[in-house]
């Protein structure tokens, strides 16, 4: 009787331990997919704005402002996807995040904040409809992407 109970209990403990691990792996995978999705949507809005700035697409004030608004909002969402231990070394999920993100977290956060600040400014400038100012501020915003990718993203 005791043996049966013991077997049952250890079986239960084992199941709990295993599902605990599975959950942790799922949570990590979810976090990676979350941040990659945020960046994909950022790009999906940033690229059409780049076309306008380069003169490859015509300028429409409303849609440009809408896209600037989205990027400003999305820039505040990416950080929560960077949970610890989701760097490329400890994951079987494909990620372009370098491990130094977690070693130099304050700098990573600052670079993320720079995008938030510059995209917020871009939104303000977009509302004026002044294309010269928009172009200048778009360039400033784009620099914040590059500055973070250069240091924290795999080539
Ligand atoms: C604070 C740092 C930081 C900033 C700012 C930043 N990125 Fe990234 N970006 C990353 C990191 C890190 C990854 C890799 C994420 C991963 O694969 O886990 C990434 C990945 C991406 C990806 C690929 C997503 C995928 O599906 O794998 C795109 C596209 C992208 N960024 C676009 C942009 C654009 C456009 C901007 C600026 C408007 C920007 N990023 C600003 C850090 C940043």
What's the CATH class, please? Mainly Alpha
Order of helices and strands: HHHHH
The beta-strand count equals: 0
Assign a percent range to the helix content. Answer: over 70%
What's the shape? elongated
Over the alpha carbons, how many angstroms does the gyration radius reach? Answer: 22 Å
First CA to last CA: what distance?
61 Å
Using the coordinates shown, work out and report the CATH topology.
Answer: Four Helix Bundle (Hemerythrin (Met), subunit A)
CATH superfamily: Cytochrome c/b562
What CATH architecture would you give?
A: Up-down Bundle
Percent of sequence in beta strands: under 5%
Specify the structural class: mainly alpha
The distinct bound ligands, ions and cofactors come out as: heme C
GO molecular function: electron transfer activity; heme binding; iron ion binding
Keywords: Electron transport, Heme, Iron, Metal-binding, Signal, Transport
Pfam families: Cytochrom_C_2
Protein name: Cytochrome C
Please give a handful of descriptors for the protein shown.
75% helix, binds heme C, 155 residues, 5 helices
Structural write-up:
This protein has 5 helices and no strands. It has 155 residues and is mainly alpha-helical. It has a single domain (2-152), classed as Four Helix Bundle (Hemerythrin (Met), subunit A). The chain is elongated. Heme C is lined by residues 32, 35-36, 39-40, 42-43, 46, 71, 95-97, 108, 111-112, 115, 144-145, 148-149, 152-153. Heme c binds at residues 145, 148-149. Keywords: Electron transport, Heme, Iron, Metal-binding, Signal, Transport.
């Amino acid at each position: 009787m005791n043996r049966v109970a013991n077997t049952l209990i250890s079986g239960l403990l084992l199941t709990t331990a295993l599902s605990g691990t599975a959950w942790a792996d799922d949570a990590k995978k979810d976090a990676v997919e979350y941040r990659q999705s945020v960046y994909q949507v950022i790009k999906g809005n940033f690229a059409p704005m780049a076309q306008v700035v380069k003169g490859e697409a015509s300028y429409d004030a409303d849609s440009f402002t809408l896209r600037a608004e989205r990027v400003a909002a999305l820039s505040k969402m990416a950080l929560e996807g960077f949970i610890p231990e989701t760097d490329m070394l400890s994951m079987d999920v494909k990620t372009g995040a370098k491990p130094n993100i977690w070693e130099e977290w304050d700098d990573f956060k600052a670079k993320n904040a720079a995008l938030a600040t510059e995209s917020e400014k871009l939104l303000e400038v977009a509302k004026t409809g002044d294309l010269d100012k928009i172009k200048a501020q778009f360039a400033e915003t784009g620099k914040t992407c590059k500055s973070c990718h250069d240091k924290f993203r795999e080539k």
